[in-house]
Amino acid sequence: MTVTLVTGANSGLGRATALLLAQKGHKVYAGMRDLEKGSKLLELAEGLDLSAIEIDVTNNDSVLECARHIEVNGDTVDVLVNNAGVAFNSVTEDIDVDRAKEVMDVNVWGPVRCVKAFVPGMRERGSGHIFQVSSVAGLIGHIGQTVYVGSKFALEGMSEALAQELISFGIRVHIVEPGVTRTAILPKNEGNPVPTAYQDHYDRMFQFYTAGIAASVQAESFAETIYEALTSSDYRLRYVCGWGGEEIGERHKTMSDEEFVEMGSLVSSAEEYGHAFFDLFGLRI
Predict the structure, then answer these.
(1) DSSP code, position 131
(2) Assessment of whether the complete model's pTM goes beyond 0.90
(3) Angle at Cα 154 formed by Cα 107 and Cα 160, nearest 5°?
(4) 227 carries an active-site annotation
(5) Three-state DSSP class for 32?
(6) Using alpha carbons only, how large is the chain's radius of gyration in Å?
(7) What is the distance between the terminal CA atoms of the chain, rounded to a whole angstrom?
(8) What is the pLDDT along the chain (285 residues), one digit of tens a residue?
(9) Which letter does DSSP use for residue 145 in this model?
(10) CB neighbours of 39 closer than 8 A, spacing ≥ 6?
(11) β-sheet with 238-241: strand ranges across
(12) Of 148, 202, 209, 273, which is the active-site residue?
């Protein structure tokens, strides 16, 4: 039986992934900071081999205790889905550095803590899968989210290095780069620092997410991408999914840096910015 740990599993992408893998026969540990928030997941998972487990990826002791608990149960993690993450809306000048550090602690150092706790067992067995949940914001410097973008760019580079480090031990690392995916959390990602000289920039960011929400791509598509990677005989490092994932994933490779930067000169007009975005990415926002 395949044993899987999904962090940030109480809602959204993590919950969908935990449920799908349990339905596919995995023994799933659904990791979350607050077990009380797992009631909906456990209700949906009735009859499946899925249990909630406490893990705060920003706390070394919590991660190690999670690993110890799984070991005491007689299990070893075969699949690690580093899904726990937080967003943060801010242009560079508006950044609250203390809050920014908290974002980095979850999005960058959280996966590192989990790798350090669970990879040794995989390495000893000579097999395993690690999924690093990035974002299309790890591919382009998306406007209005400097810190979030920075955390995902960091995760991308570190995951490339990790993939090279572990492949000779039989461990496959996969980077998943979702576009906008409809979850209960997404509409709550509202607001920006005020007062600000950059309201137009924030408005263009919200314009992008509003279009993505309207497309209504469900979290299950992300979970299916994880399952596809797990069951494929061919190894791929990167997978894109969600609204805009494929378009941004492909088109950012061919555009020039200057073309992308030039969009910033159009932020005062929703219409002009939208036209430029369509010209570059083929997406209507």
Answers:
(1) E
(2) yes
(3) 110
(4) no
(5) strand
(6) 19
(7) 44
(8) 999 999 999 999 999 999 999 999 999 999 999 999 999 999 999 999 999 999 999 999 999 999 999 999 999 999 999 999 999 999 999 999 999 999 999 999 999 999 999 999 999 999 999 999 999 999 999 899 999 999 999 999 999 999 999 999 999 999 999 999 987 666 666 789 999 999 999 999 999 999 999 998 999 999 999 999 999 999 999 999 999 999 998 998 899 999 999 999 999 999 999 999 999 999 999
(9) B
(10) none
(11) 50-54, 27-32, 3-6, 79-82, 128-133, 171-178, 238-241
(12) 148
* Closest C-alpha among 155, 69, 157 to residue 112: 155
Residue 195: asked if its preceding bond is cis (omega within 30°), the reply is: yes
Contact 107, 87 (CB under 8 A): no
Q: Give the Å distances, CA to CA, from 182 to 74, 92, 117, 178, 278.
A: 36, 27, 31, 11, 21
- In this structure, which topology does domain 3-188+217-253 adopt according to CATH? Rossmann fold (3.40.50)
* Backbone angles phi and psi of 84, in degrees to 5: -55, 130
Write the CA distances from 87 to 43, 58, 147, integer angstroms. 27, 15, 8
What is the rounded CA–CA span in Å between residue 85 and residue 83? 6
Q: Where are the domains of the chain?
A: 3-188+217-253
Query: How far, in Å, CA of 43 to CA of 84, rounded?
Result: 21
User: Residue 27 has which token pair?
Assistant: 């023994």
Q: Phi-psi category of 170—alpha, beta or left, where left has phi over 0 and alpha has psi -120 to 50? A: left
Place of tokens 């950012």: 252
Q: Please report, for residues 26, 69, 125, 225, the alpha-carbon distance to residue 230 in angstroms, rounded to integers and kept in the order given.
A: 11, 25, 17, 9
